Amino acid sequence: MKSVILCFFGLVSLTNCLDLIVSLDKSWCEKTPNCLYAGENASNIIQNGLNMIRIEKGGSILIKEGVYILSTQLTLYGNTTFVGEGIDKTVFKLQDFASSWRLSGILRSTWKSGNCSNLVFKSFTLDGNKQNQVVNASISDYGRFGLFTEMCHNVVVDSVRITSFQGYGFDPHGNKGDRFAYNLIIKNCIADTNDWDGFTLDQTIGIDVQNCTSYNNCLLYTSDAADDTPCVDL
Predict the structure, then answer these.
(1) pLDDT tens track for 146-173
(2) Strand partners, 125
(3) Tens-digit pLDDT profile for residues 100-130
(4) How many Å apart are CA 138 and CA 39, to the nearest integer?
(5) What is the pTM (predicted TM-score) of this model?
């Protein structure tokens, strides 16, 4: 059966877009159109696919079932659908003792990289693998969050689990100051066992949260310079 992916951004369906598939099955991928073989470290392959979608001004990337080891962050751009095959079926796991980074989120999209509107994240798990990371690392490790968007408009997050990060789980917001994001939908999502808040929804006009669960977060509260409010698991 031929795999078909529909490019779908919020309430807008696009017919002229790039549809990609990422798989851990090399032989299957070799005979499947627009399939990228992830290999043992998936970061570069998936990022290359996201960059291709950016060049084409939009598209979708389907990540097949399996555990994808990430060595660093993935950056999405506007008009992108990023979808797996289900919570705890498609899993993105940070590699053991991963290198430090300064930017927020292992899966991230920000206006500073250009257009970041019309994003869909659906049907996967992000695993920060905190039990196999440096504990109480320096401030250079700030930003070990799950999903981060900054001043992105029309964002849908559906059926995503974020677990075991050393910082926030879900962290969509505007740009610090007076610039806001618009239209955020989060539904059927789970945040658990993250060291800071499970969900931090900030500086966004028009937020719809449905059927989400947060538990066992705030295990290691660390105040940052911008906000000394205690971590609260909501």
Answers:
(1) 999 999 999 999 999 999 999 999 999 9
(2) 91, 161
(3) 887 899 999 999 888 899 999 999 999 999 9
(4) 31
(5) 0.89
Q: What are the angstrom distances between the C-alpha of 129 and each of 36, 146, 184, 217?
A: 25, 11, 27, 14
Distance CA 1, CA 27 (A): 16
C-beta of residue 164 within 8 angstroms of C-beta of residue 128: yes
Smallest CA-to-CA distance from 134 within 97, 162, 175 is with 97
Instruction: Tell me, letter by letter, the H, E, C secondary structure of the chain.
Output: CCCCCCCEECCEECCCCEEEEEECCHHHHHCCCCEEECCCCCHHHHHHHHHHHHHCCCEEEEECCEEEEECCCEECCCCEEEECCCCCCEEEEECCCCCCCCCCCCEEEEHHHCCCCCEEEEEEEEECCHHHCCCCCCHHHCCCCCEEEECCCCEEEEEEEEECCCCCCEEEECECCCECEEEEEEECCEEECCCCCCECCECEEEEEEECCEEECCCCCCCCECCECCCCCCC
Nearest Cα to Cα of residue 40 among 54, 51, 24, 55? 24
